[in-house]
Amino acid sequence: MTWDLIGHDWAVQLLRGHIQNNSLRQAYLITGPRGVGKRDLALRFVQSLTCPGAATSADPCLSCPTCLQVGRMEHPDLFPVLLEEGSKQIKIDQIRDLIHSLALSPYQATRRFGLLFDFEQANPSTQNALLKTLEEPPEPVVLILTAVSSDVLLETITSRCEVIKLNPVPLEQTSRGLEELHGIPAEQARLLAHISGGKPVLALAYHRDPALLERRKNLLDEHMEILRANSVERFAYADRTSKDPGKIEDLLDVWVTLWHDILIQSGKSAVPLQNIDRGDEIELILEKVDFRTARSAVDLFRRAHQLLGENANLKLTLEDLLLQLPTLTA
Q: Which CATH number, 1.20.272, 1.20.1630, 1.10.1740, 1.10.3470, labels domain 209-324?
């Protein structure tokens, strides 16, 4: 496994080539779904540029004090920007603080690094605050942004970055990586690879935190209850759930995977199920819906994601989704 990452070998080879050929870009944008490994790739890249043993190979040792500092995001020349606890958006003051820090000379490494994680959570004004630094970054500085998609950022931001788009890792490769790198038994690794949809970081999170698996189970159980519920019950569910924004995001991510499975099965595709532990429920729903209904349901989730990304009203967005989902009658 290259750089001790599960999958994304092509991206590692690209970044390693930039290091070895002394052709580093001033800014990188790593995109992909939640849990696919964007943050891990960004940190490995920084480790490859700072590890004393990586000077010729561009392969970090991952065990020296420098690699460990970067892994903890505590390196003196590393400046991460993350969504602050209790905040819904990255703040413009965080960008201004970053710009000030990057203007100083490196303390320990040969360059300074700005890491801007989940930058889709920055509004246009905050994104614009970074624009001048992207256009003319101080030397020597490397900026690394992550986002779910380049489409959710201003075009003026993405056009100034080398974009690296990460896709889910093939299930067999994910399962093998979980076994080889993390010692997870084969059958459990296979299950984790499937239910994570080939997203290694999400698979490891499920493995390490049983509460996340329980949350997924509860959300899928609630999904079946909603499909059997009438409009009054669906309105009540939307009212309760809208008070927990984090749950809505998880709900959309989990429920849409089931409808992807339903869509695939209704279209007679050979693509394996993601929710392999929910085969009976998928078969039950398939008895009640056709391909067109399944495709419409998937589109509903995409629209809900888009609306929430535009800061639409949580309760109204959820109500609209729930009322348009099909109803399973006895």
A: 1.20.272
Q: What is the mean pLDDT of residues 250-268?
A: 93
pLDDT, tens only, 190-239:
999 999 999 999 999 999 999 999 999 999 999 999 999 999 999 999 99
H/E segment holding residue 224: helix 210-228
Q: Which segments of the chain belong to CATH 1.20.272?
A: 209-324
Give the CATH class of 2-165.
alpha beta
Give the distance, in angstroms, between the CA of residue 312 and the centroid of all CA atoms in the same chain.
21
Among candidate residues 253, 241, 248, 277, the one with its CA nearest the CA of residue 202: 253
Strand partners, 114: 79, 143
d(CA 10, CA 252): 30
The DSSP call for residue 120 is: G
d(CA 112, CA 109): 7
Instruction: Tokens for 120, please give them.
Output: 């889709």
CA distance 49 to 103: 19
Name which of 107-116, 130-139, 165-174 the model is least confident about: 130-139
- Give the integer Cα–Cα distance in Å for 301 and 257: 10
Return residue ranges of the chain for CATH 3.40.50.300.
2-165
**Residues, the chain, total?**
330
Q: DSSP code of 1?
A: -
| Residue from 289, 301, 291 nearest 268 by CA | 291
Distance (Å, rounded) from C-alpha 226 to C-alpha 234?
6
Bridge pairing between strands 112-116 and 78-81: parallel
* Number of Cβ atoms within 10 Å of the Cβ of 124: 11
Half-sphere exposure of 297 (CA within 13 A, CB side): 26
Tell me the C-alpha distance between 277 and 161, whole Å: 40
